[in-house]
Amino acid sequence: MKKFFKYLGVALIVLLIAIQFFHPKKNITEGPQQNFIGNAYPVSDDVKSIMAKACNDCHSNNTRYPWYAKIQPVHWFLNKHIIEGKEEINFDEFANKSLRYQFHKMDEVIKQVKEGEMPLNSYTWIHKDAKLTDEEKNKLINWAESIQDTLKAHYPMDSLVRPKK
Ligand code: HEC
Predict the structure, then answer these.
(1) Which parts of the chain sit beneath pLDDT 70?
(2) For residue 54, which of 62, 91, 130, 148 is within the disulfide window of CB 3.0 to 4.6 Å?
């Protein structure tokens, strides 16, 4: 039995060393982001800095990687959130999306921020400054609402929300 645990320990260490050589592709895209939400709607410096510290690592085309992302399997864990987050909403791939998508996603931003679901707990646990104050939450919510207002001012409601059958 003792021998078994010794082999198991060695096997785990070998595995841990081996996986250090496998890293997913990093979420880094150089240059200006053509479909950045700010190209279609005004984004104040305040909102920009809130998003930069609390959202963009998982919802943009550029993640600021912490040093420990160099250690596997941490990188895989972070990468999963980045991929899932970008799939849900990517602020760098927003301006080219349909009106309905844009309108709906602003609903989701309002909801997620109001309920304190975003940023993810696993993120604020490490990035303390990403834990949003009430003032920061309000700024984000007001901003998302202002985008919805702009849309409503320019387009009829049934082009923003699928009419109920
Ligand atoms: C650590 C990564 C991470 C951070 C930071 C983060 N998110 Fe997310 N976000 C995710 C993941 C993963 C999902 C999808 C799974 C889920 O909903 O929990 C998601 C889902 C969402 C959704 C849901 C979209 C939909 O249509 O249901 C919205 C909206 C959102 N995030 C907005 C934000 C905002 C705004 C911030 C900053 C205040 C933020 N997120 C910060 C990872 C992150």
Answers:
(1) none
(2) 130
- pLDDT in the model for residue 164: 75
User: How far does CA 117 lie from the centroid of its chain?
Assistant: 12
pLDDT of residue 162: 85
Question: What residue type is 51 in one-letter code?
Answer: M
- 25 φ/ψ sector (left φ>0, alpha ψ -120 to 50, else beta): beta
> CA torsion sign, 112 to 118 to 98 to 39?
positive
Burial 129-151 (b: 16+ CB within 10 A, else e): ebebeeebbebbbebbeebbeeb
- Determine the longest span between alpha carbons in the chain, in angstroms: 73
Residue whose entry in the numeric block shows the structure tokens 């943009």 = 60
Vertex 68: Cα angle to 63 and 73 (nearest 5): 95
Which amino acid, residue 78? L
Cα 86 from chain centroid (whole Å): 6
Ligand 1: which of 112, 131, 132 to mutate, most ligand atoms within 8 Å of CB?
112
The alpha carbon of 92 and the centre of ligand 1 are apart by a number of angstroms equal to 14
